[in-house]
Each structure stands twice: as C-alpha cells, then as structure tokens.
Amino acid sequence: xxxxxxxxxxxxxxxxxxxxxxxxxxxxxxxxxxxxxxxxxxxxxxxxxxxxxxxxxxxxxxxxxxxxxxxxxxxxxxxxxxxxxxxxxxxxxxxxxxxxxxxxxxxxxxxxxxxxxxxxxxxxxxxxxxxxxxxxxxxxxxxxxxxxxxxxxxxxxxxxxxxxxxxxxxxxxxxxxxxxxxxxxxxxxxxxxxxxxxxxxxxxxxxxxxxxxxxxxxxxxxxxxxxxxxxxxxxxxxxxxxxxxxxxxxxxxx
Length: 254
Prior knowledge:
Blueprint: E1 3-9, H1 13-19, E2 30-35, H2 42-48, E3 53-55, H3 61-70, E4 76-80, H4 90-99, E5 104-108, H5 125-141, E6 156-159, H6 160-166, H7 175-185, E7 190-194, H8 209-227, H9 233-246
Parallel strand pairs: 1-2, 1-4, 2-3, 5-7
Antiparallel strand pairs: 4-6, 5-6
Helix pairs in contact: 1-2, 5-9, 8-9
C-alpha cells in the first residue's frame, strides 16, 4: 500500500513558502505537484525541494485532479492546496482513513469541532450554500446511510481504484461534488474528519463567485435528471429556485 500527496498550485508562492518546509516527507511515499502556470516563483520554490511538477495545460480544478492522478503511482491519494485554508496536519489523518477502508475521506468544515472560515461572519452565505448543496445530495443519493456533512470540500483523499472507476469529468470546481455524488450512488464508504479551515494566505481566490455558483447549480440539476423520481420533481424545482438566488455566494477559496 502506497500513499501519494498531490499538491495543487497556481501562483501560491506565499502558501508554498509557509507549508512546504514543514511538510513531513514521511507523510507520503510520493509527493508531486500539479501547476496551472504559476509565474510568481511557486514552481522554482517547489523545485528547490525536489518536488516533481506536472504541468496543467487545460484550465480547471477538475483537470488538475486528473493530471495529478495520471502522473502518480500511489494506491491512496490526497489532494492538498497550500493556500492557508487547509490544515496540513490533516493529511496523515486522511491517508489513515483510506488505509482503514474508506473509499473517499473528506476533511469536513461542518462536523462538530470543525471550523469554516466564515463561522465568525454575520452572514456566512458561502457556508449556507455549501450546506444546501450538501443537503440536496444526501436527500437524493444518500438516504439511509451516514450523512455526509461536506460534499463539496476539495481537501480530501480517495483510493486510486475508486477515482478510476468514477472517472470524474468535471473541468472546474464541481469535481469534488461529482466525486461525492458518484460515491453515494455506488454506495461507497465515505468517511469524514473535522478540519479547521483558516483564512487564505496570499495569492488570489481562483473561483469567481457567480460562475462557480451557476456551475454547481447546473451540475446538480444534470445529476438529478439522470435518475429523478416523480415525487421529487416539486422538491427539486423549489430547491433549484432557492439555490439560483444565492448561488453567487459560493466562493471556492482555493
């Protein structure tokens, strides 16, 4: 059994300076990076630490996931964005969940003892929208099974065999939602740990609010159409209207 850590970067020099030096080489058997065309010194810094870099020639977070998996060899894979949001101490925990039998391991921002970066805000709109999409996924594809609290978070691990079987095709930020819904449909084992999401350090958020929200809404509706049940049509329609009104609030701070 082998572990691969895939680091996702696009102009994250502040983040890699903060996290790469403290990242234990023992956390994974293989550490690689997928870079989307950094011009701020991110690539050069990674090279100083002898981390192999694979170029992402097509834009999108989903494409970065696929490039990383295609160029890795581990049986267990964890995706990590060094932007300050994700706690590097959780990397080992995610690997341990996979090794213990989980098909997908998610660092949840909504479990007890977890923290979402909007928790101290009066109107945590992104959090509410994330939870709304999570609720819809559980109601449609995960009834009778343990509730998954954070279907969207990108800080996660997956078995290579599961990734290959799911074969996610999303180009952008819906990649994680697609993976989770596919796992729910297949009744795979999804396990979560609480995580503390911090504020971004440097760099810029890569996911624009409105386009990302619209993408999530369209993806959800396309999934529902595949296996919609008659009694659910009114619920889905009402939910879609509500989500459309606030979907702009989703910001993937990666």
